[in-house]
Design brief:
2 domains; alpha+beta; five-stranded antiparallel beta sheet; 29% helix; three-stranded antiparallel beta sheet; 282 residues; 16 strands
């Protein structure tokens, strides 16, 4: 069980980013098989076009089977966008980089969206933590995009006026050691944090994206079972009749619409969480 006792949650919502209370619900549970049929396969029964040779009946994709398609679509969505959808605690080793340290201890985390920071430590090559950065120093207003900063100051009130002062002499001394000659040290820090949408409440637009992927997989499999019905003809006493059906192309139009929607959504989601471009000082 994940421990969030001493974690520092991001400011505001993970989606919409940094938002507060709203009268409109933008997050919801993962879509169900019934949602998949009603919203993305309306009018298309999940029934094979070919009879099962053992039962003599057309195979029906049950809700349990459709749930597996949805589960698979979640994994595909994470791979295509770079997002982590369900909450997961993870760890990033981060280098000591002088340019990034001089920019208020700038870190760019590799996984998104970040929902909380659990711990930042100075970590030796034997994986031993020798110092833990106080979470009061950790600035996470842009953490949903993976940006974290270390600002070793707190606010003290002097005659009613806020004044920035060092939090602790010992911690400030350790950080001052970084002012030496080293420009870059690999895996000097270790950052423990949580990614994914809190409480498994998924943005509606992410559910929409997952639905397009699952529907495309289902319809693609169903289309293959209509391959034997592309055309037939009947001739009796000089009279003939021909019947032509779409065959495996029966769902082509719907698949194209879903593919266009999927392409649009993956681009929008990558833009929201800044997953298209990565830059650093190394």
């Amino acid at each position: 069980m994940a421990d969030y006792t001493n974690s520092k949650p991001v400011v505001g919502s993970v989606y919409p980013i940094n938002s507060g209370e709203s009268t409109w619900t933008r997050n919801e549970p993962l879509l169900t098989p019934e949602d998949l049929k009603e919203l993305y396969m309306a009018g298309i029964p999940p029934v094979s076009g070919m009879k099962d040779p053992f039962t003599g009946k057309n195979k029906v994709l049950t809700d349990a089977v459709l749930a597996k398609f949805i589960h698979k679509a979640v994994g595909t969505a994470e791979l295509e966008t770079g997002l982590f959808i369900f909450p997961m605690q993870t760890t990033d080793p981060k280098q000591w980089d002088r340019q990034e340290y001089d920019s208020f201890g700038y870190f760019q985390l590799t996984k998104r969206p970040v929902s909380s920071i659990e711990k930042i430590t100075v970590n030796l090559s034997n994986n031993q933590d020798i110092y833990e950065v106080p979470l009061d120093w950790v600035e996470i207003k842009n953490a949903q995009w993976g940006q974290v900063n270390i600002i070793p100051l707190t606010i003290a009130l002097t005659s009613g006026n806020p004044t920035a002062i060092p939090t602790s002499a010992g911690g400030a001394l350790l950080l001052s050691i970084f002012q030496g000659k080293s420009q870059w040290v690999p895996s000097f820090f270790k950052i423990d944090y949580t990614v994914g949408f809190p409480d498994a409440m998924i943005p509606a637009v992410v559910n929409q994206y997952i639905g397009t992927i699952a529907a495309m997989d289902v319809l693609s499999q169903l289309a293959a079972t209509f391959g034997r019905s592309s055309g037939s003809s009947l001739s009796i006493d000089g009279m003939s009749q021909s019947v032509s059906t779409p065959g495996p192309e029966i769902f082509t139009k719907r698949l194209k619409d879903l593919a266009d929607e999927r392409k649009m959504l993956v681009g929008r989601l990558k833009n929201v969480y800044h997953l298209k471009i990565f830059s650093g000082n190394v």
